[in-house]
Amino acid sequence: MDSVECRRLKILVIDDEPLIRTTLRRQLGMIGLPQSNIFESANAAEGFLETVQHRPDVVFCDIHMPMVDGFHYLKQVRKSADATLAATPVIMLTGDASESSVLTARSLSVNAYLVKPVSTKILQQSIERTLKATLIPMHRS
Question: Where 4-aspartylphosphate occurs along the chain (predicted)?
Fold first, then answer.
């Protein structure tokens, strides 16, 4: 596994619940990600625009949100004509543990599926598995 320096990663959190976004931001900071590299969206439509603009290394996306859900976001990303954008790693982070939602996410090529709440350790492990890398909190000489 390669090593990835945390402070170089860009993460996007798409969730309609401000408390969830705040909690994830805090947890990602505990892993070593700078707050300036963590982007947020309150819905999937804005999340897609943020994905295009910031090109995150990993996206954490809720499923059930008003207007546009996380499945629609994932479809939009995967069907992008831009191959780099289409390959954006997406981790579903949701309260929905139903088999049908897991299977739908899998059919849309989700990279991982986590059920809320998750520990900081699980977040870190899911990022590492998704990137196939070991996260290091700072530059090693």
Answer: 62
Angstrom distances, CA of residue 91 to CA of 57, 131, 138, 141:
11, 11, 24, 31
User: For 12-24, what is the mean pLDDT?
Assistant: 97
Strand partners, 17: none
* Phi, psi (rounded to 5 degrees) for 125: -60, -40
- What pLDDT, in 10s, does the model give residues 105-118? 999 999 999 999 99
| Residue 111, C-beta contacts closer than 8 angstroms, at least 6 positions apart | 58, 89, 90, 91, 130
Q: CA-CA distance, 38 to 61, in Å (whole number)?
A: 13
Least confident among 41-55, 56-70, 77-91, 125-139: 125-139
